[in-house]
Amino acid sequence: MPKAYEQIADDLRRSIRSGRLRPGERLPAETALAERYGRSVPTLRDALRLLREEGLIEKEHGRGNFVRRPRTKVVRDNSRHQWEKNRVHQPVRNRARTGATERDTGLELQDLVFHAAYREIPADADLAAAFGLPEGTPLIARSYRTRHTVESAPFNLATSYLVRDLVAGNADLLDETREPWPGGTQNQLSTVGIELDRVEERLTARPPTPEEAAELELPPGTSVLLLRKTSYDTAGRVVEISDVTLPGDRTEAVFVTPLERW
Predict the structure, then answer these.
(1) Is the dihedral of CA 146, 151, 156, 158 positive or negative?
(2) What is the distance between the alpha carbons of residues 12 and 5, in angstroms, rounded to a whole number?
């Protein structure tokens, strides 16, 4: 038989999913809810904790519990890289109208808030091995945060790494003020004569760090997906690496693999 707090959670869950409690609506005070259900405040708090863990409600300090507004869903599929490559040689006015984030979310350019920050770093052992270069090789680390205008959390936490000497021929590629770059990384690389041949992506999962949970505004118990994207040029050289932390509660990864016919 369900415990008392589970029964309360079930009733509130039905109210949320039916729309009787709308996104952004504040729930009654905990004491009022405890009185309504004829249970103690600690039992009521156990029910609310369960709903927070499910991502249905969130607690704002000093204000109370609110029905959580659904976050924008991001659908990443493996055709996005060919889509980006197809746009490399399009006029800049076409490339500037939309980008990969808009493609993945269905949003428009005006719906987004974008931030980029560049810094030069020496390659650590992990990145040096991934690039096939000596440790200490100068890299450009580019951190990106993009969010929906009506939300406060970014869609993901992304850092892209380029070999500094490989892209230094175009000074614009070292300048964060040139972001957002129409056409993305593939167009950037094309300006220094680099064409991508293939993209390898590896996906793992783990609990978030406290910093990741706070920045992505994750419900308790939500995992993050870790994506490492490695881009190879037509000579088989690694030319870009991206590490992306994706929130597990609003990211869908879709993989479509064409098969040869018999």
Answers:
(1) positive
(2) 11
DSSP 184-246: HHHHHHHTTT--EEEEEEEEEEEPPPHHHHHHHTPPTT--EEEEEEEEEETTS-EEEEEEEEE
Contacts of 230 (CB under 8 A, 6+ apart): 130, 199, 200, 201, 202, 238, 240, 241
In-domain check, residue 249 = yes
What does the pLDDT look like over 18-76, one tens digit per residue? 989 998 899 999 999 999 999 999 999 999 988 888 888 888 888 899 988 888 999 99
Q: Are strands 224-233 and 238-247 parallel, antiparallel or unpaired?
A: antiparallel
- The answer to the question of residue 261 being in a domain is no
Residue 80 resides in a domain: yes
**Longest pairwise C-alpha distance within the chain:** 71
The span from the CA of 179 to the CA of 159, in Å, is 14
pTM of the model as a whole: 0.85
The angle formed by the CA atoms of residues 189, 89 and 170, to the nearest 5 degrees, is 30
Compute the CA torsion angle 249, 255, 256, 258 (nearest 10 deg): -170
Tokens of 159: 């850092």
Please tell me whether residues 123 and 202 are part of one structural domain: yes
- Provide the terminal-to-terminal Cα distance of the chain, rounded to the nearest Å: 55
